[in-house]
Amino acid sequence: MTSSQFSQDAAALSDRISGGVVLRDDPQLADEARGQFLFLEHSPDIAVAVETEADVIEAVRFADTHDLTIHVQATGHGTHETITDGLLISTRRLDGLRIDPSLRTASIGAGLRWRPVVDAAAPHGLAPITGSAPGVGVVGFLLGGGVGPLSRSLGFGSDWVRSMRIVTGAGELVTASDTENADLFWALRGGKSGFGVVTEVTIELAEIPELYAGSLTFAAEHVDDVLRAWSRWTHDVPDTVTSSAAIMRFPDVEQVPPPMRGATVVSIRVAILEAEAEGEAIVAPLRDAAPAMSDEVGPMALVDVGNIHNDPEDPSPMHAWSQGHSVTALDDETIESFISAFGTQASTPLTAAELRHIGSTRVAPDTAAGGRDGEYLFSALGISPFAQDEVFASAAASFLETIAPQIAAQTPVNFLGETPLDELADLAWTPDDASQLSAVRWRVDPAHRVHGLH
Predict the structure, then answer these.
(1) pLDDT digits (tens, 9 = 90+) for 63-111
(2) Rounded CA Rg of the chain
(3) Euclidean distance between CA atoms 217 and 208, whole angstroms
(4) Which of 96, 243, 393, 438 gets the most CB atoms within 10 Å of its CB?
(5) What percentage of the chain exceeds 90 in pLDDT?
(6) CA of 115: how far to CAs of 86, 134, 204, 301, 305, in Å?
(7) What is the mean pLDDT of residues 305-312?
């Protein structure tokens, strides 16, 4: 097909939809295609800014007619490579939100981030099971299973999904739930990609009467002792407690406020579903481990759950690399290896190295979400003004080699970071689940039109 014919067909598509259509040579494409990571400059053949489910159907059918790969982006948090071809469906204008306090549900448009959902649910004493950063998109988080600051107590975010509306790769708008398209519903809760374009998700909201939460930050001279104390502490805490420990190296730049500027610290994050008195008793061993630079743990309003990890929400121009692995146990030898690899005496280019305590006795529903066998979740983050993925990967690899016997077979897919697409299935799902996911993808996207796993 000639470029002239393609342009004419794109103009016709624009006439049929409520949203906008932008071609590669249009100067507006950069703004429409831009995501969370500003260093990724996307240049698809065409971008469609959808505003309705009908727009999504039209866009998918256009891609089928023109044999185009479909890329989907709401916020861009899950995008690790530059998009250089195909059709980009931008869902950020699908921003509807309905809270039903009586049913304890929220129906959420595919373009929304978690913050407006948290803010709308909190006045009713309700909360969604979100990630650590409220600026992350709802749908991408849930499609990947969804591990957050309440996961040990209340499960993965995908456990709380009650239905999804999706335009499949075949161009059909369907609802997936326990009673409709049950195989697709199973797959969407943790299967991540390759099914279609989710337009709306309905989740159950958790009743959280009281939350005792926040972070404790300790200076460099206390990093080792605090990590050992936290590790021992996690072996005995009740399932009402979710926590993590992160060694962070702050750059010596003006954007970082003193005394953190140029410093190495350890941050202990806790979320406890208990009243203040019980929470204080649980946290006491951590406070006794060493004097804290800052202590922001206390009774917390539900709207402030993003303050537990205090992750940045604004788009970043910096190059970022990340990778995670589930860990089956955290014994003394493993925590010493962690300290040796990332502590204050180590020379590492990584910005942060974190261990999350997520294992519990909670019974999980049957979903595609993998990586539940890990008692802990290790993740590494590298941030720099320029790309140096190999340097960051090498810095994490030595630690992973040391603790190889403790690495679980599967890891939640959202934490696999820069893992190549052709390796994801083996690392994120059991062979049986990977096979079942592939079968569902073949059914709903037989042309393998939607970018992702197949």
Answers:
(1) 999 999 999 999 988 887 889 999 999 999 999 999 999 999 999 999 9
(2) 22
(3) 26
(4) 243
(5) 85
(6) 31, 5, 16, 14, 10
(7) 91
Alpha-carbon distance of 87 to 66, in angstroms, equals: 10
Strands (E), 311-427: 319-327, 352-357, 376-384
Question: What angle is formed at CA 259 by the lines to CA 254 and CA 263, rounded to 5 degrees?
Answer: 85
Structure confidence at residue 196 as a pLDDT band (50, 70, 90): very high
Question: pLDDT tens for residues 10-26?
Answer: 999 999 999 999 999 99
pLDDT of residue 254: 67
SS3 string, 414-432, reads: HHCCCCCHHHHHHHHCCHH
If one compares 261 and 295, the residue with the highest pLDDT of the two is 295
CB distance 381 to 351 below 8 Å = yes
Decide if pLDDT at 411 tops 90: yes
Per DSSP, helices labelled H in 168-311 are 182-188, 223-234, 276-289
Spatial contact of 105 and 205, defined as CB atoms under 8 Å apart = yes
Does residue 50 contact residue 59 with C-beta atoms inside 8 Å?
A: yes
Cβ atoms of residues 314 and 76 within 8 Å: no
Cis preceding linkage at 259, omega within 30: yes
381: which 2 tokens? 């983050």
CA distance 448 to 454: 7
List the beta strands (DSSP E) in 205-316.
206-207, 212-218, 241-249, 264-272, 294-295, 298-299
Please, are residues 223 and 247 in contact by the beta-carbon 8 Å criterion?
A: yes
Distance CA 308, CA 297 (A): 8
Cβ neighbours of residue 253 under 8 Å, at least 6 residues apart?
261
CA dihedral 113, 144, 377, 161 (to 10 degrees): 70
Cβ contact 189:368 at 8 Å: yes
Q: What does the DSSP 8-state code read for residue 171?
A: S
- Tell me how far apart the alpha carbons of residues 16 and 187 are, in angstroms, rounded to a whole number: 31
Q: Give the pLDDT confidence of 335-359 residue by residue, as tens digits.
A: 999 999 999 988 899 999 999 999 9
Q: Backbone phi, then psi, for 116, in 5-degree steps?
A: -65, -30
Which residue is it, tokens 């809760």?
Answer: 189
SS3 (DSSP) at 153: helix
Closest CA to 441 of 155, 195, 139: 195
pLDDT band at 37 (very low <50, low <70, confident <90, very high): confident
